């Protein structure tokens, strides 16, 4: 058997959009094979075809040289391929054991047996999670491990990991890679999707690049220069990322917090952000940085402390009040707080300006479209047009719509949480550039990110550890220095 997995000459259309155009992939047995491409290149569409969730309009899929099962035979698909998605498929209201086994029981559920089988399964795959814990209480990393164990328990020897590291911090990524290496040694074949090209070099042996719905290249990773990989993705020679020099921030404070505490998340936090300043928030997953940022954006209410936005004191935990005070935000969880899938790109991206675009609460569709078109251009959103529902966009492009919404009202205070998660290399620059532009125009921004590269645009980075700000690091840090503070090794 030459290839464990083959997708040949696949074409898939959604109405006027061709998501895959005679594209394909060939993955050798036991290999970890990367699939990369810009947002909207067709990666997720290939995943849905390789997992049997969608049928191609043309082309075929083979596993170990044999034709893929029929579309209705879900069990046969599950025995051949499993996918761990960035967005969890685990049901939060059920226990881990129920998530692992419920849909495999007969009509009568034997609870005791279910729990013990779940414990055995978790032990087999060395997943240190309580089988009786509620899945909703698990962290991102633990949930992912449960999903991997569930995937393997169906007997699949081919696993697709679709942007698994997008919501993990550094140490968790390392633990995932250790697990992936162990799986590879056991002969498991993997397809790995990521926008982090350094990860591709670290964990994969070969890489396939899709661009504009087509296959453009497959190469062994070891002999592929980084520049060539980026050029294949973007279709142009790589431009050197330029480091912008912004003016020094003014004295005007646009966002301020004093004595903020939220039980179990953070304690005694104070910070102030000036007009023209980007303040980074860094720390591990348990550092409290996301909880703090959510409080600053009005998504959460602190137990004590005070927040001022442009000199006003919006009601804590009241998002509309924060928006009215001049704040814009990009939430961590875009699927819940970020966009309304059935509404169009224009409707989603112009939501906060509805008051302004038309008088007396009426929004003129024409003005909404004009503003939306402008944002689509500025942020390079790949869409059929402003009227397309966001649900039809690729993950990274939906994230850009969330970003557009945060910026559309020219906010004077911005809180952005992991804004480049799931966004391709080139678009990252566009999004971070948009934050810098807003700051140049006089806004102040808080930027929370797990990615050190994102934090480079910050004037200073506040590092959090166990719920407290432990250090204020000025521009000019090295990765090593920042990581040492984040991990509590050095203060
Ligand atoms: N259900 C759908 N209806 C209409 N268009 C769709 C649908 N699903 C995908 N598309 C379109 O197909 C194209 C490919 O999308 P796909 O999700 O495969 O991209 P991707 O490479 O996974 O992107 P990302 O890196 O942003 O996740 C996009 O233009 C997208 O808008």
TrEMBL record:
Molecular function in Gene Ontology: ATP binding; ATP hydrolysis activity
InterPro entries: AAA+_ATPase, ABC_carbohydrate_import_ATPase, ABC_transporter-like_ATP-bd, ABC_transporter-like_CS, P-loop_NTPase
Domain of life according to the entry: Bacteria
Domain ABC transporter, residue spans: 5-237, 247-491
Annotated keywords: ATP-binding, Nucleotide-binding, Repeat, Sugar transport, Transport
Protein name: Simple sugar transport system ATP-binding protein
Species assigned in the record: Nonomuraea endophytica
């Amino acid at each position: 058997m030459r290839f464990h997995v083959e997708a040949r000459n696949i074409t898939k259309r959604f109405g006027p959009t061709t998501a895959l155009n005679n594209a394909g992939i060939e993955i050798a047995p036991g290999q970890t094979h990367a699939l990369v491409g810009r947002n909207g290149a067709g990666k997720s569409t290939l995943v849905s075809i390789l997992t049997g969730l969608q049928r191609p309009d043309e082309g075929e899929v083979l596993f170990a040289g044999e034709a893929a099962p029929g579309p209705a035979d879900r069990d046969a698909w599950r025995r051949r391929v499993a996918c761990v998605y960035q967005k969890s498929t685990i049901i939060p209201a059920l226990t881990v054991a129920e998530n692992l086994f419920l849909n495999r029981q007969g009509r009568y559920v034997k609870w005791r047996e279910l729990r013990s089988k779940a414990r055995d399964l978790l032990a087999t795959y060395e997943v240190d999670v309580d089988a009786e814990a509620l899945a909703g209480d698990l962290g991102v990393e633990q949930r992912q491990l449960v999903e991997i164990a569930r995937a393997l328990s169906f007997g699949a020897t081919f696993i697709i990991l679709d942007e698994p590291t997008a919501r993990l911090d550094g140490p968790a990524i390392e633990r995932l890679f250790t697990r992936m290496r162990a799986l590879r040694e056991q002969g498991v074949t993997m397809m790995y999707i990521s926008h982090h090209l350094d990860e591709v070099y670290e964990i994969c042996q070969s890489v396939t690049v899709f661009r504009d719905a087509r296959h453009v290249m497959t190469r062994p990773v070891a002999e592929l220069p980084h520049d060539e990989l980026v050029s294949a993705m973007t279709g142009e020679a790589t431009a050197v990322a330029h480091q912008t020099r912004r003016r020094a921030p003014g004295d005007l404070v646009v966002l301020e917090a004093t004595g903020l505490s939220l039980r179990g998340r953070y304690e005694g936090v104070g910070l102030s952000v000036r007009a023209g300043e980007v303040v980074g928030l860094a720390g591990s997953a348990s550092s409290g940085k996301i909880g703090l940022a959510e409080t600053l954006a009005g998504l959460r209410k602190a137990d004590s402390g005070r927040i001022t936005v442009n000199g006003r004191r919006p009601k804590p935990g009241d998002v509309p009040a924060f928006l009215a005070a001049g704040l814009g935000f990009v939430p961590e969880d875009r699927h819940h707080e970020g966009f309304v899938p059935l509404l169009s790109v224009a409707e989603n991206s112009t939501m906060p300006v509805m008051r302004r675009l038309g008088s007396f609460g009426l929004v003129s569709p024409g003005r909404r479209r004009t503003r939306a078109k402008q944002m689509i251009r500025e942020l390079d959103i790949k869409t059929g047009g402003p009227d397309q529902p966001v649900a039809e966009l690729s993950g990274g492009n939906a994230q850009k719509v969330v970003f557009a919404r945060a910026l559309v009202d020219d906010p004077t205070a911005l809180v952005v949480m992991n804004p480049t998660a799931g966004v391709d290399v080139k678009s990252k620059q566009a999004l971070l550039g948009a934050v810098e532009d807003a700051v140049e125009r006089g806004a102040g921004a808080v930027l929370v990110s797990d990615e050190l590269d994102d934090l480079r645009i910050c004037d200073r980075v506040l590092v959090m550890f166990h719920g407290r700000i432990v250090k204020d690091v000025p521009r000019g840090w090295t990765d090593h220095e920042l990581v040492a503070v984040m991990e509590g090794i050095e203060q």
